[in-house]
């Protein structure tokens, strides 16, 4: 998985290459007409439960959600600054409905996920 900030850096590099390839005006039009689709949450919220992470010893669930949303906001603003104007966001299913979580640790995982 490539983190969001690396993806933003890759986007900026791609935009620079695009300008060289098709010219600044055409690149600007292409970037502004593109739709930037984001699916966030699956790895961000599942990893701490599946990787025996101590992350939730440092953050409450609310603080962790704020951090994930803050990272997403920073990257969306970065794309907007580069000319992106159309954004789409895919919804994430409730974590407690994902079969992996019920299989990992039926009782404990379900109890923990009720906070989400």
TrEMBL record:
UniProt family annotation: Belongs to the 'GDSL' lipolytic enzyme family.
Keyword annotations: Signal
InterPro entries documented for this protein: GDSL, GLIP1-5/GLL25, SGNH_hydro_sf
Keyword Signal on entry: yes
Pfam families: Lipase_GDSL (PF00657)
Protein's UniProt keywords contain Cell inner membrane: no
Recorded GO MF terms: hydrolase activity, acting on ester bonds
Organism this protein belongs to: Juglans regia
Protein name: Uncharacterized protein
